[in-house]
Design a protein that fits this description.
Length: about 80
Amino acid sequence: MKISEFIHPIEQFAKLGSVHSVFPYSFNLQVGKLLINVSSFFEYLVSYGLYLPQNIFEEVHRMYNAVILSKLAIKNLFL
């Protein structure tokens, strides 16, 4: 993992965050009032971002998608 010096340590903004937006090769976390970009592009690190190795990024992305699909399935049970 590589983290931008502008957001290190992340805890300075808040202790908890949430997924703000998701894209094919990155996603944004909202931590307090700050958006933090998480991507798997080692060569390109945004000033408010962090890099995850491709295998870890893909696993996080898969877990997020599984949670969203589970929420949709549960919601559809009550329609």
